[in-house]
Amino acid sequence: MFLIELRVGKNDNEVHFTVLKEMQCIDGVKTIVWINDSIIVGTVNGYSLFSCVTGQSGVIFTLPDGSSLPLLKLLRKEKKVLLLVDNVGIVVDAHGQPVGGSLVFRKGPDSVGELASYVVVVRDGKMELYHKKSGSCVQTVTFGSEGVGPCIVADEESGNGTLAAVATLTKVICYRRVPPEEQIKDLLRKKNLKEAISLLEELESNDEMSNEMLSFVHAQVGFLLLFDMHFEEAVNHFLQSETMQPSEVFPFIMRDPNRWSLLVPRNRYWGLHPPPAPLEDVVDDGLMAIQRAIFLKKAGVDTTVNETFLLNPPSRADLLELAIENMSRYLEVSREKELTPSVREGVDTLLLYLYRALNRVSDMEKLASSGNSCIVEELETLLDESGHLRTLAFLYASKGISSKALAIWHTLARNYSSGLWKDPALEHELSGGNTNMISGREIAATEASKILEELSDQDLVLQHLGWIADVNPVLAVQVLTSEKRVNQLLPNEVIAAIDPKQVEIFQRYLQWLIEDQDSCDAQFHTLYALSLAKSTVETFEVESTSQDPGDGRLEETKISDFGRNSIFQRPVRERLQIFLQSSDLYDPEEVLDLIEGSELWLEKAILYRKLGQETLVLQILALKLEDSEAAEHYCAEIGRPDAYMQLLDMYLDPQNGKEPMFNAAVRLLHNHGESLDPLQVLETLSPDMPLQLASDTILRMLRARLHHHLQGQIMRNLSHALDVDAKLARMEERSRHVQINDESLCDSSHARLGTKLFAMYPDDTVVCYKCFRRLGESTSVRGRDFKQDPLFKPAPPSLPLSFWVGGRGELSRIGVETLLPWLPSAFIFLEAGRLTVSCHGTGRPFDVTEG
After folding, report:
1. How far apart are CA 801 and CA 520, in angstroms?
2. Which of the chain's termini has less CB crowding within 10 Å, N or C?
3. Phi and psi dihedrals of 363, rounded to 5?
4. What would the pLDDT profile of 519-559 be if each residue is shown by its tens digit?
5. d(Cα 87, Cα 137) in Å, to the nearest integer?
6. What is the overall mean pLDDT for the chain?
7. What transmembrane ranges does the database entry give (predicted)?
């Protein structure tokens, strides 16, 4: 075997060849193919592979006895080789390894060709086309009788050609490949939908058709399937078409003429399907075709109607429901595309139209309540007549038609008042697996409150506030206090519109104005305080009347503050007390007038405190409430000693026939007796007060009084001693002398002083007058500033300091204890040493060592 290189001259007159390689071959070669660096040869014994690089060879496989002659075909498009063994074609790669599946022909072919994605084989006057991947025979062409003799087929070298030539003993026939579009069109015209779809999928996978044409064919196939009532497959093809417009399906949903008739493109495609018609007409026509086909089949006539429909004819309702479901599926996907505003309006409106036909309430409400482009005029009559008022209300709300939406919710609240209605969007599971049934009125009020929370139309908000408050006060409060609206409601108008029976709503709104909106309007503060006071009085009276005098137990009383539907978590009395203490803008006199005849003593005490009625406050705290701690705390706030005396007098003489409160008086004396005048206390004490109760307290008061007196004496003596010490030190400083001679120098400029003026600083440095003017009188040569860092000098050793502490025993000890804290301060001005303090009564010294 020789590998030869041919060289052709410029004028094609000269041809030169060069032998590149010589290889040892085998005998009986019948066919040969060169692919890449390999040469595959076929003999009667089998197929072998030769390497052009190494020259080595190997057997791919051998042929069985009695096999037909070997035949090789190079598949240029895939760069593979087809090896024939009788009627079986095996595809191998450049290394002789089998790849993919095998092609099984009807008979052993005389010749093999390649035409795009097909293998062409000829034999006995017939040409057959086999698909390379699927191996199926897609077409058979007869060009002669069976006795025509051996045939040969030739193709274009590119592998993607459109022509194939078939030669017989007497003639040569050329065949042109029909374009894929024409093939699909012909198959569709003949109602061979499965073959057409298979061919379409094949062309799509091989990228042999443009995207625009693919979209066109998918749409055409979809319309044919739609009219054949294969709705799911039809929509699947619609979704694969990138050029099909959603408006093309509008005529199937709504009859012409309609709002969107002019938007429907007049695209007839290949004209293989009837004009668009409503789905009801499509289904009716399809059922008629099925009935006609059944009649013809009984007569022995074949039809193109699906065999499944003939064996089991579907009902009109099932077909129509299936058609609407799939059409809605197409519109749902279309909503995600970029559409023009008018087309989007049609998609959303017709989608809601289809949902209504299927009675898919949840989908209807989801679409209507979300952002949509539905046309209300096309749907309101339809939804109203079909009873889908909730959907219509959601639709009105999404379009900003709040008044109509609220009117519907109000109507629903009245209609649902007699029963319970389960809403999947609002129900939730409770513990134990029980489902919480929410009343229809509650649901209607909830949806209405969502609209009102964002609404700035005050008249409309107040118009619907009443029925929402009757259903759920919490929702009414949310409406009034919403921060979502652009312009807040006028407080005076809201207060006037709130039903007087809805006390909690009234109080919660005022609380929101005061606490959240930081309102400083005294009118609102007073209204809030009066409302709380009135509710507290009523609640207190109910609790008092429910007291069973027999056993002292309280009966169960349903009070709004403690009901499970209450707006507030804290009892009304606690809220009243907190507000009375925290606010200074309400009118305490008006509140006092309201609660004057009640037993709300703590509240009265707070109000009297606001008015500055100290005596009344103390009387309530001490005598009515008997809260000694609160009374003493209030006296501390007053900050005057006479307040404690006034409180003590109240304890000892309560008036109105009440027994003296000796224990409280003793407590007061024990806690604050040191700040009271003992003489006044003794004058105030009642002769009936047991001595053993007050003796310890009075003794402590006297000791404390003496303690303060002695402490004052000590402080006075210490101050006098310090003053004497300072005067002595100043006198010594001023009486100091300095001797200057001819050798004396200025400590700053080091100039001789001579007869010059000079100055001396407290640290004994001497400077001339010139340097003194420069340095100043407070800063010495050494840089010490005597104003910031004063200089202290020890006092003379002979400075006497005497302390006399009068009294005997315990009083002497108290005096010494009072003296000791002052001694460290005194040591600053005294020499280190010992200070002896002698007790005047016992003569025993108290030694105080140096600090």
Report:
1. 65
2. C
3. -65, -40
4. 999 999 999 999 999 999 999 888 877 655 544 444 444 44
5. 13
6. 82
7. none
| All residues at 6 or more sequence positions from 343 whose CB lies less than 8 Å from its CB, including other chains | 245, 246, 247, 260, 263
Where in the chain are the domains? 243-399, 400-424+440-499, 625-736, 740-793+825-833
Nearest Cα to 397, choosing from 407, 384, 412, 382? Answer: 407
What's residue 483's pLDDT? Answer: 92
Q: How far apart are CA 451 and CA 338, in angstroms?
A: 30
Give the DSSP letter string of 400-422: T-HHHHHHHHHHHHHHGGGSB--
For the ranges 54-63, 311-320, 723-732, 822-831, the lowest mean pLDDT is seen at 822-831
Q: What is the H or E stretch that residue 428 is in? A: none
Share of the chain above pLDDT 70, in %: 83
Q: What is the pTM of this model?
A: 0.65
**pLDDT score at 3:** 80
Reduced to 3 states (helix: H, G, I; strand: E, B; else coil), residue 17 is strand
Q: Which helix (H) or strand (E) holds 60?
A: strand 57-62
What letter would DSSP give residue 828?
G
Q: What is the largest CA-CA distance in the chain?
A: 163
Strands 163-167 and 38-43: unpaired
Q: pLDDT-based confidence at 763, cuts 50/70/90?
A: confident
> Which DSSP string corresponds to 730-755?
HHHHHT------TT-B-TTT--B-TT
What's the rounded Cα separation, in Å, for the pair 171 and 739? Answer: 156
CA distance 527 to 587: 9
Strand-pair partners of 805: 839
**CA 747 and chain centroid, separation:** 80
Cα separation, 663 vs 177, whole angstroms: 122
CA distance 25 to 181: 48
Q: Which amino acid is at 689?
A: M
- C-alpha to C-alpha distance for 141 and 122, rounded to whole angstroms: 9
Report the side by side order of strands in the sheet with 57-62.
29-35, 38-43, 46-51, 57-62
Q: Which of 715, 717, 712, 632 is nearest to 676 (CA)?
A: 632
How many helices and strands in the chain, by DSSP H and E?
31, 21
- Contacts with 449 (C-beta within 8 Å, 6 or more apart), sequence order: 468, 475, 476, 478, 479
433: enclosing H helix or E strand: none
Distance CA 844, CA 839 (A): 6
Distance CA 810, CA 461 (A): 81
Contact 634, 617 (CB under 8 A): yes
Q: Angle between the 361-369 and 389-398 helix axes, to the nearest 10 degrees?
A: 20
Instruction: Tell me what the mean pLDDT of segment 791-803 comes to.
Output: 48
- Average the pLDDT over 258-271 and give the result: 89
What tens digit of pLDDT does each residue of 7-36 get?
777 666 777 778 877 787 888 888 999 898
Coil, helix or strand at residue 84: strand
User: Which amino acid, one-letter code, is at 242?
Assistant: E
Amino acid identity at 170: T
806: left (phi over 0), alpha (psi -120 to 50) or beta: beta
- What 3 state SS string does 628-662 have? HHHHHHHHHHHCCHHHHHHHHHHHHCCCCCCCCCH
Helix (H) or strand (E) holding 303, with range, is none
